[in-house]
Write a structure and sequence with these properties.
Blueprint (H helix, E strand, L loop, with lengths): L12 H15 L2 E7 L5 E5 L14 H21 L9 H14 L1 H5 L2 H7 L3 H7 L5 E2 L2 E2 L1 H20 L2
Antiparallel strand pairs: 1-2, 3-4
Helix pairs in contact: 1-3, 2-3, 3-7, 5-6, 6-7
């Protein structure tokens, strides 16, 4: 694996804990797979996991927590691959972008104004761009509005702290 895409979460227990708390808090947990109505009925389980999930799949809470940690690392590597200098981002901003990547998908994140602005060195502008991602199934969703406001606040906190 190239050093360019190595895991920052793997090098910082604090960042991993922050990411798990942020994503887990917004995703909520369901241990039996269900059709997610906001994602066109895609089978979803645990903390919003959709990859390889079939309706009726069941997991323990502990299995869900492990799944979330693994998924965040996977999404992180995808997110890092489209950022020019991911390690120069403030930690809180990095976690906010990871939360968005987990929620909207790596492809959407990499094609977004968040990634473009971060790559141009405008991290505050990238934080503001989080607020553009509030729709699911073609309509604005209050939960996504609230999530993006929280991610933006954390992101801007990172910008103010500088690391």
């Amino acid at each position: 694996m190239s050093t360019k895409i190595r895991s920052r979460l793997g090098r910082s227990a604090g960042l991993l804990a922050m990411a798990i708390a942020l994503v887990g808090g917004w995703e909520g947990v369901r241990t039996v797979a269900y059709p997610d109505r906001l994602a066109n009925g895609i089978p979803t389980v645990c903390f919003g996991e959709t990859r390889g999930v079939k309706l009726g799949d069941e997991y323990t809470l502990e299995e869900c927590k492990v799944m979330l940690g693994d998924a965040l690392t996977d999404f992180e590597l995808g997110m890092r691959a489209c950022l020019k200098a991911p390690d120069s981002l403030p930690g809180k901003s990095y976690v906010a972008f990871l939360s968005a990547s987990y929620n909207i998908g790596v492809r959407a994140f990499c094609g977004s104004s968040m990634a473009r602005l971060a790559n141009a060195g405008d991290v505050a502008g990238a934080c503001d761009a989080l607020l553009r991602w509030t729709r699911a199934a073609g309509r604005e969703v209050k939960g996504l509005v609230n999530r993006r406001k929280a991610e933006r606040a954390l992101c801007l906190e990172g910008v103010k702290e500088g690391r």
